[in-house]
Amino acid sequence: LATVSPTIQSPEAQIRDGDIISDMLESLEGDLQKRGLITVPKGCCALCQKPIVGKIITALGQTWHPEHFLCSHCGEELTNKSFFEKNGQAYCTNDYQELFSPRCAYCSGPVVDKVLTALDKTWHPEHFFCTHCGGVFNE
Question: What does pTM read for this prediction?
């Protein structure tokens, strides 16, 4: 019994794949023009700088081929996914939380939902407890 685990391509590999797709689109565009049909680019991709014909992503004030809108850290495709922006860069949810969320003073994990700030530190509410009896302080 074999299992196949999905792999995330590097941004460079995705650009190469995008180049193949771009070549195919250019060929298709040429064929359409020969038949009297004209395609109009919808913008220029912020990553590869090539014209966009077909599906388009508009985010961060720029336009992208869907396969070129990627997490700045891990390269995961962000099309149809929630993402975070920091300093003009897009991040998947996991990377944004790992890179930029405050850290719990007890477990060092990212604090992403409820945040408790006490003693000049940030805590998960369940990790701020009495060191004497171990009881969690109520809100």
Answer: 0.64
